[in-house]
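REQUEST
  id: r-88c1
  op: predict_structure
  target: Sodium-dependent multivitamin transporter
  payload:
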Amino acid sequence: MKVQAEFGVWDYVVVILVLLTSSSIGLYYRFTGGRQKTVEEYLHADKNMSIYTVAISLMASFMSAITILGVSSENYSFGFQFILIYLGHLIFTPIAAYLYLPIFFKLQTTSAYEYLEMRFGKTARLATSLSYTLQMILYTGVVIYAPALALEAVTGISRLTAVLSIGLVCMFYSTIGGMKAVILTDVLQSLLMFLGVFSIIISALVAHGGFANIWKIAELGNRTDIFNFNPDPTIRHSWFSLVIGGGVLYLSLYGVNQTQIQRYLTVKDLKRAQKALWLNWPIFCLLGIATSFSGLAIYSRYKDCDPVKAGYISSMDQLMPYYVVDTMGHIPGLAGLFVAGIFSASLSTISASLNSVAAVTMEDYYKPISKYLNKPELSPKKAATLTKCMAMGFGILCLGVSFLVQHLGALLKAALTIFGAVGGPILGLFSLGMFTLTANESGSLTGLVAGMAVSMWLAFAPKPPPNPLPTSIDGCNDNNLLNNIITIQVNESDYSWLYRVSYLYNGVIGLVITFSIGYLTSIIVRQFNGIKVEDENYNPNLFIPSLSQKLILKKHDNKVFKLVNRSNSCEDFKKNDISEL
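RESPONSE
  id: r-88c1
  status: 200
  body:
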């Protein structure tokens, strides 16, 4: 039977307490310590954050409500194989920690995209930071709206109330409290995410008598197979697409994304940042696997009466809140705890986005324009105030985008697709700069445009809808249920092979095209202009550690050669200023 939404007084109390607590953390950091009077404190938390809080914040930054709702419905519909994506995260963590992260720590730039100006030029920096800004505004608007849409359908919380509650509270504490408030609230919100997901698992374990019974039900529904090693790229989920495609997406987020780089720089040194990144993986993995298993737990209840097929809810993303109201709605405050967890997942992502986009706007747009117009440099206090206003402005803009989503239904899918498709080419651009000496600005920009065009084309190309595993409505016992459900059969052969490639490969394709075309174009440009790599004067800090060391040794050898050449004897050489070396 269809569940009637009931959200009691205690449920509202729990949600309101969570929102008030998040706001109070912002107020606390506004009136303590340095009171967010400098950009350094506001954006980098004075570099004195604990590695444990930063590790949790790294996880919370991209574990949004869309992820919580989406991963559970993914496992409900397609099975448990999705957990292999966390293996990809593990494999790519050392690459992010020991190749990309040291470069950002050497430079200590507020904007990650400042690196691209140092390596290639202003155009590369501006193009990439604009891509990031547009990506985050669209994504953040969706993060605000999507859970509001799902929760409205099953809890009775109006869409307007949910959107304004999430948006305004987050704007308040992230604007006045800065990065310290963002990271600390991430810790609180992560705890609530865990509580919300585990409340579902525990209720299912109690109802079915243990883990083994839930697993057996899922096994009978063909939802436990994780051994699909088929290398065919058109298969939606396999070991290869999840590990490689998921790993590249992870690397684009944790290796070169401004949101995460800014968090790394809130600790004192590189080793602490690397530890925080390593600690992030088991935390992220634990929540991810728990959310995945919650999908199987939900399936154990609805295996004979699928709520979507029965018409009780309109979207698979509403499964988790529907289950909570259905099974725990009678317990005062428990549904509220779950909703608080969903709100928290959105809050953590939104606050991360606002703070990071404000940093990019200050460093990549405002400062270069001010310098070009010969405006005097702002005092630390005025710069911090302006950055806060930027964060507030972007918050209002994202709220506006969230209201537009309901009128542009395709935007929900489009924004999420952009989030993955843009990451691969940007990762390819950074990799060109960090891993090669040959790459130049002309080549890198050509590669970026080509990679972005192809990955976006593939992302938005008409694709056959995925075929979920079968579900039933035989056990619904609903006299009003319409049994004349029409199933539309889709013939995949009607679609081009390219259009059937798994969505997880979008980032991989963007990375490969950006890197390869960028590298080849750079060689052609160098040949045409007669510019040799050996004649370039590179900054060793702009390259991965192994390449950086070679450049340092080369400079060392050149200086020794020059000193020996201008010395008439060994005695003269000894008298030279050896400190040059």
